[in-house]
Amino acid sequence: MEYELNDFQRECFELLHRTVNDLGETFEFKTIESATFDQGPENFVHGRLARSGLEFWIYEDAAMYTIGGRKKHFEAPDFKDSSQLMEAFIRRVAALLSEHQATP
Amino acid sequence: MQVAGGNDVTDAEALRQARQLEHGLIIDPRHPLAQTGFGRSTYEDPTGATQALGEAYLRAYGELALGVAAGPLARGALSVDAATAAAGGVASEGIIATRGFRFFFGRSGILNSNQYLRIGLGRDGGNLVFRASGSIVERITESGHIVFKTYGKF
């Protein structure tokens, strides 16, 4: 089975990786998983951060996170293009991680 | 070909290992955390309200699908699937495999592809769900999703 990621997924994960490192967080785990979504196979990145417990998924054209029972989806039709989606996702995750760090 | 561990591997395996090294990712679709049915355990529907609403919606649109199937627009493309779906109780897992259902609710279905309100199949963590999303839903919920039905791992 091929575990290939598309450009969006690679770029998004790389940005996330950088953001996580910059904020001093670490990954508890990060995997590439494969499943069938609406008749077609899809690979997606799934991971969780160690300290904050933020869990994330990066799909072929979307992303989402959950943290402390809250979650947020970022889907393609809500954004002009994939770069905008990626930016919104990363910004939100960065804000949450900063918020988490600031909480005693 | 030899990669990483020094054992003979196929090209596909070499590619997989190269990607693993490139991304620092562990490739394991059977990771225990992926098997927990995250969406189910975390986003339970204690009153069953969203589940009931989702099933009612599915029933209503199953009938619509049947109506469309009878018209010239969908002749030959939807009729058998939509009729089967509507007659079969609509809310079952089986319906998501039908062409009629996908026409409306699939990944790029006509009710599942605009920015204001999308109703249809989506992903929620590792689960396939029937959900509503879009800018209208975002005004109601922080998550941007209202999950009507969880089908389990997609």
Descriptive overview:
- The complex is a heterodimer of chains A (104) and B (154).
- Chain A has helices at 7-22, 82-102, and strands spanning 27-37, 40-49, 55-58, 62-67, 70-75.
- With 104 residues, chain A is of the alpha+beta class.
- Chain A has one domain.
- Chain A has a five-stranded antiparallel beta sheet with strand order 1-2-3-4-5, with helices on one face.
- The longest helix of chain A is centred in the last third of the chain and has 21 residues, at 82-102.
- Chain A starts with 6 loop residues before the first helix and ends with a helix.
- With 154 residues, chain B is of the alpha+beta class.
- Chain B folds into two domains: 1-30, no CATH class; 31-153, no CATH class.
- Chain B contains six helices and five strands.
- Chain B has a three-stranded antiparallel beta sheet with strand order 3-4-5. In chain B, strands 1-2 form a two-stranded antiparallel ribbon.
- In chain B, strand 3 and strand 4 (127-133) form a beta hairpin.
- The longest helix of chain B is centred in the middle third of the chain and has 22 residues, at 49-70.
- The two termini of chain B are 34 Å apart.
Helix content of chain A: 25-40%
Q: Can you give the mean pLDDT of chain B?
A: 62
Strand content of chain B: 15-25%
* Major sheet summary line of chain A: 5 strands, antiparallel
Alpha-carbon distance between the termini of chain A? 45 Å
Largest interface: A-B, 39 and 43 residues
Number of strands of chain B: 5
Instruction: Tell me the structural class of chain B.
Output: alpha+beta
Tell me the layout of helices and strands:
The complex is a heterodimer of chains A (104) and B (154).
Chain A: H1 7-22, E1 27-37, E2 40-49, E3 55-58, E4 62-67, E5 70-75, H2 82-102
Chain B: E1 2-3, E2 7-8, H1 11-23, H2 38-42, H3 49-70, H4 79-87, H5 99-105, E3 118-124, E4 127-133, H6 135-140, E5 145-153
Antiparallel strand pairs in B: 1-2, 3-4, 4-5
